[in-house]
Specification:
By secondary structure, the chain is of the alpha+beta class. 53% of the residues lie in helices and 13% in strands. Helix 5 crosses helix 6.
Length: 456
């Protein structure tokens, strides 16, 4: 074997090693999570700080790696093609292409990237310092390429916010699931975090006090009567309405009363008080009756919470699609759901009572969202917020105890009513052997149902 051939083989070996180096570098560095990069920067010594510094400017790092990979791959391809065509002529072109592609795939792509995926942190620390040196060597070339790519991206992006480095809600949920499967966090901790993630996306109507349960005061009531109603119902705020509950215009706040005790307003109606309040000499700063804050019932809780905090509102009146009053929600309701909802998830599952005859009893107020997530139901979210409302929608008329209705998967029987409201529903599978029913039957923490008289 001639010395020229040995030089070619040695050169190719070096080029394939460099190709593998750049490929492994790209895979290892860009597969590190933000948490791992931060940890390396704080505790990884010089190499760890170098890794963090490289990834702090990802576009610069990517251009450095791609330039290096392109140069060595092009050089390797040129040497192989020149060597084979020199010996075989034009007939060796196809062989040169096939050989180059195979060698680059094996030694420059598949093998190094597989190793980098398995040992990402170790590989990243190993390549960091050489990459830093190489990035300084090709700085002029990189500057030109970055200028060109920035111009192209600016033209294509047209003002869109770059969000590649942002962790989306779905990605966070996926990471949470992986952590739970790996045993890094337990099931209770995962449920808490999942609840916090889902909280901003919940519709306000799912947390509202419905119209039928609202405690309101008419504008013709005196301030003394409004105070007695608030004390009797243990409310600190009461919506004030005109002709009907669909005509709410204010909120009576009993915490403002001390400022008005000496003003002789106790016998005034709420309407007269608001009309004459500003005409009083030196009126207190606390208004006693504030303007009502209205939002559509479809408003997401995250946005509603921001709106209420920015506007200083503690109560929001929710409007349906026709502009009528659907219900109300208070700032305390939102905070209780965010904080207390984490603690009551397990209790929500116990709303279900497993029964010996192969059916499950559910309280009518149980949320459809919770039944789906905690117990494996697949009920539509756009028809009702509670299981009682969903069954009422299926029935399509005023319910009666004992009436049965069904959907694609389950049969529902009304067990108990309070007025026109469904208080308890019995759920039975249409196919007891179905995978969905087995999932529902095994889900949650059901308790044995008490003996119950047949519905009348």
């Amino acid at each position: 074997m001639s010395s020229a051939v040995l030089v070619e083989l040695a050169g190719l070996a070096v080029l394939f090693l460099l190709s593998g180096f750049f490929s492994a570098s790209e895979t290892a560095l860009f597969s590190l999570s933000r948490a791992r990069v931060q940890r390396l920067g704080e505790t990884g010594g010089l190499t760890g700080r170098t890794v963090a510094a490289l990834l702090a400017r990802p576009q610069r790092l990517l251009i450095t790696i791609l330039v290096g990979n392109m140069v060595v791959n092009t050089a390797a391809s040129s040497i192989i093609a020149a060597s084979i065509t020199l010996r075989l002529g034009d007939q060796g072109v196809a062989l040169a292409i096939a050989l180059t592609t195979s060698l680059l795939l094996i030694f420059g792509e598949v093998t190094p990237k597989t190793l980098a995926v398995r040992q990402a942190e170790a590989v990243a620390c190993g390549v960091a310092l050489p990459l830093l040196w190489f990035s300084k060597v090709i700085a002029p070339i990189r500057y030109v390429l970055r200028s060109i790519t920035r111009g192209l991206l600016a033209a294509l992006r047209r003002g869109h916010i770059e969000s590649a480095n942002l962790l989306t809600r779905h990605e966070f949920a996926a990471a949470l699931e992986v952590g739970e499967e790996a045993g890094v966090i337990d099931e209770h901790e995962a449920d808490m975090v999942e609840h916090i993630i889902e909280f901003p996306t919940i519709a306000a109507r799912e947390l509202m006090v419905p119209r039928t349960e609202m405690v309101c005061v008419p504008e013709t009531a005196t301030i003394e009567e409004a105070l007695k109603l608030a004390q009797r119902t243990h409310r600190s705020r009461l919506p004030v309405y005109g002709e009907s509950v669909d005509d709410i215009w204010g909120v009576f706040d009993i915490r403002d009363l001390p400022a008005w005790r000496s003003r002789g307003v106790w016998r005034q109606t709420l309407r007269d008080f608001v009309q004459t309040r500003d005409a009083l000499p030196n009126p207190p700063q606390r208004p006693l009756v504030r303007p009502a804050f209205f939002v559509p019932e479809s408003r997401r809780v995250g946005q509603l919470l921001r709106d209420m905090r920015e506007g200083g509102n503690h109560m929001a009146v929710l409007l349906d699609e026709y502009g009528g009053t659907a219900g109300l929600v208070t700032l305390r309701d939102l905070v209780d759901e965010l904080v207390g909802g984490v603690l009551t998830r397990e209790a929500d599952s116990s709303r279900l009572c497993r029964k010996g005859d192969g059916c499950i009893q559910v309280l009518g107020e149980a949320r459809v969202r919770d039944l789906n997530s905690d117990l494996g139901f697949a009920l539509p979210l756009d028809r009702a917020d509670t299981i009682g409302g969903y069954v009422l929608d299926l029935i399509g008329e005023l319910p009666r105890p004992g009436v049965e209705v069904h959907d694609e998967h389950f049969a529902y029987r009304v067990r108990r009513l309070s007025g026109r409201r469904i208080m308890a529903v019995e759920v039975r599978p249409r196919d007891p052997d179905s995978e969905m029913w087995q999932r529902v039957w095994q889900g949650g923490q059901c308790v044995p149902a008490p003996e119950e008289a047949p519905p009348s």
